[in-house]
Write a structure and sequence with these properties.
The chain is of the alpha+beta class. Helix content is 19%, strand content 36%. It has one domain: outer membrane lipoprotein receptor (LolB), chain A (Clam). It has an 11-stranded antiparallel beta sheet with strand order 6-5-4-3-2-1-11-10-9-8-7.
Length: 273
Amino acid sequence: MVEQYRGRARVLAGATFALVGVVGAGGCTAGAGASADDRHGGPDAVRQAAHVLAGAGTSRARTSMTMATGGTRVTIRGAGGFDFGRRSGRLTVALPPDAAGTEEHPPITELLTPAAVYMKNRGARVPAGQWVRIEPAKLSDGNLVTNGATDPLVAAELLCGARGVAYAGTEELAGTRVRHYKGTADLSVAARNAAPQARAVLAAAAKGFAGPDVPFDAYFDARGRLRKVRETFSFSNQGHTVQVASTTLLYGFGTPVAVTLPPAGDIYAGDVE
């Protein structure tokens, strides 16, 4: 978790992260007078990223999160699928190996829903085969970092607060021609403009990070769908600034995504490390 990371930043290279997931949200409402160019390019298209994804249905997703401080860098990767209309998905998150290259922790399975995230293999105290339930809005960072794999729709919702958007040209991304935009998202503005389900999560993040500004690079295809976004957060740890870069890649639109919640008897109710 973020709290654990802050307390152990000076020994980050040998740390094993206890990670939790992120809840999805809807999207900024598209303006009634938006032109085709606004929907497929420009600042308005960036701010409407979540709205367009909600209409796109489902996709596959790959995520990575890199934490860096004092010359030490750790990367955590996730893969799975997301249903943007239902605000639900399933990700498998792989923790980094130890200094010798040995896997220290099995992958974490995350089930994302509008109300909570359910995780398997979540911590040393959790009995084998049981799940942990987390409410992201109650975490100090809105769970944008604690998770280790930012929820694809929350990453898009954050762009509701985009400002200073600049067009950076077209590029080839996994065989698809995309438009590249750079800018800065304001977490406080995003919390106000996002769909109701996302506001509490983004508001928590706005309070928990070193500042509200989140630099981003966003890539959109010809249909206005967000295909990749890289967002950079920062927080203070014992007088040092920790940089966190979160990247989400979306592809395989239309791929079926099934999310089956665990039965109540399989949810662990005790303390989690």
